[in-house]
Design a protein that fits this description.
The chain has 312 residues and is of the alpha+beta class. The protein folds into 3 domains: 6-83, Uridine Diphospho-n-acetylenolpyruvylglucosamine Reductase, domain 2, CATH 3.30.43.10; 87-211, Uridine Diphospho-n-acetylenolpyruvylglucosamine Reductase, domain 3, CATH 3.30.465.10; 217-309, Uridine Diphospho-n-acetylenolpyruvylglucosamine Reductase, domain 1. It is 27% helix and 27% strand. The chain is globular. The two termini are 14 Å apart. Bound molecules: flavin-adenine dinucleotide (FAD).
């Protein structure tokens, strides 16, 4: 059965592009999963603001970026998905600050920072996806995360109203942003520090090569499957501080577990991969089985870091 919400939208009001039954799963990093009833790629921020104002508040609405951190379930996504493409991908440098649209790729932001001699943003170079996704996930790597470089995030509310949020409004924790769920990030201002381009470039190169040797970056994957347990969670079950999710996955037989076409990567046991013919349910069942095994053995629930989106 196919679904569509196109009759709930007056498409003539907008410059942007609508696609019915858009095959989002195939475009996600996992390369599997269902379709979105309706996909809207706004032409600019005004187009998006009008859409948010007009789209019925009771209808489901979701914004997605590079889909590097999500499983799109096989039954697809009801309602409308917003995707921020080229019109939202501009990057501008002012001194040690970088203004980036929420559709800009993290890698492009890192590259612009290097070119301008701005240090501190190079961790973004190997985090797939967009600025919007990085804000929502408080993405981070090698000891730096979005919260360390953010000056302000520009957002549209569910009714299309514009606001600028500062660091305190974002409620950042490890891989978590407490800003209201219904907002759409449209841009961000980041700040680094002035440094020699050659020094920043060397650090960026090092990050890239470490990542290449430790993560399955050319596989169909979604990054870390589970958030690493907090110090308090580990203390409660008597495990040493710093124990990582991948170590628990290994201890419960995660290296040899395969469900359909889904298994954990040999290169990094917290990275789940689609070996070729996985459906989204295989990925989710694998994650749930590992959560169960870890709980049975250690008494701790691992939390999904990957977002599971849509209907099974
Ligand atoms: C090989 C690989 C390596 C990775 N390594 C890392 C790593 O080192 N560190 C790390 O933190 N992550 C890592 N990830 C995960 C992923 O890259 C990050 O979570 C990234 O921030 C996701 O961005 P995205 O644009 O793809 O978001 P999506 O996956 O599209 O969406 C993620 C969430 O953000 C929301 N969202 C997206 N855009 C917007 C917006 N404009 N407004 C509001 N909400 C929005 C979505 O609704 C969803 O809830 C890795 C992933 C892969 C595949």
């Amino acid at each position: 059965m196919t679904h569509s919400n196109i009759n709930k939208v007056n498409v003539n009001l907008y410059e942007g592009i609508f696609t019915e039954n858009a095959p989002l799963g195939q475009k996600s990093w996992f390369k599997c999963g269902g379709t979105a009833d309706l996909l809207f790629a706004p032409d600019d921020i005004d187009d998006l603001a009008v859409f948010l104002k007009e789209y019925p508040p009771e209808e489901p609405l979701l914004v997605l970026g590079g889909m590097a951190n999500c499983i799109i379930r096989d039954g697809g996504i009801r309602g409308c998905v917003i995707t921020l493409g080229k019109p939202f991908a501009e990057i501008e440098v002012q001194g040690t600050r970088i203004m980036a649209g929420a559709g800009a790729l993290n890698g492009s932001v890192a590259a612009a920072a290097v070119k301008a001699g701005i240090g501190g943003l190079e961790f973004l170079s190997g985090i797939p996806g967009t600025v919007g996704g990085a804000l929502r996930m408080n993405a981070g790597a090698y000891g730096t995360e979005i919260k360390d470089i953010l000056i302000a995030a520009m957002v549209l509310g569910r009714n299309g109203s514009f606001a600028s949020l500062d660091l305190d409004d974002m409620g950042f924790r490890y891989r978590y942003c407490g800003a209201p769920k219904e907002i759409t990030f449209v841009g961000a201002i980041f700040e680094g520090k002035a440094e020699e381009t050659s020094v920043v470039r060397a650090r960026l190169k090092e990050i890239k090569s470490t990542r290449q040797s430790t993560q399955p970056i050319s596989e169909k994957t979604g990054g870390s499957t589970f958030a690493n347990p907090s110090a308090a969670e580990l203390e409660a079950i008597g495990l040493p501080e710093g124990t990582r999710a991948w170590q628990m996955v290994e201890k419960v037989g995660g290296r040899d577990l395969q469900i359909g076409g889904a298994r954990m990567s040999d290169k990094h046991l917290n990275f789940m991969i689609n070996t070729g013919d996985a459906i989204a349910a295989d990925l989710e069942n694998l994650g749930d089985e590992l959560i169960k095994r870890v709980h049975d053995q250690f008494g701790l629930y691992l939390h999904w870091e990957i977002r599971r989106i849509g209907e099974a």
